[in-house]
């Protein structure tokens, strides 16, 4: 588990600014609207150009591609319960998902976390009964 955490930290440290043209600086934030990571200088510029716009900045992630749709290159914001996968808003409109049960990705994640917690409790309970 510690190795996994170190790997994530190293990945985040290795992310370069998408806007630097010559010497690539280390990115400090990722914009989930622009789907780009920015160094301190370019983050200031990004913020100045997008004043009053709802851009969501998060800590740098080396796994941005995992959070974007491979087909539409949009953020995976919707969870399709029917297909048990995250999709983008354009996929949601696609005939492949028409009539499917969908919620926000955040809601889908929260529901999964509750189920995992319930499963863990059952495993502990069964383990405790068998050890008595």
Automatic annotation (TrEMBL):
Name the record gives this protein: B box-type domain-containing protein
Domain B box-type: 64-105
GO molecular function: zinc ion binding
PANTHER family named among the record's database cross-references: B-BOX DOMAIN CONTAINING, E3 UBIQUITIN_ISG15 LIGASE TRIM25-RELATED
SMART domains in the cross-refs: BBOX (SM00336)
InterPro entries noted in UniProt: E3_ubiq-ligase_TRIM/RNF, Znf_B-box
Keyword vocabulary terms for this entry: Metal-binding, Zinc, Zinc-finger
Matches recorded under Gene3D superfamilies: 4.10.830.40, Classic Zinc Finger (3.30.160.60)
SUPFAM superfamilies associated with the record: B-box zinc-binding domain
Domain of life: Eukaryota
Keyword Chaperone attributed: no
Listed Pfam families: zf-B_box
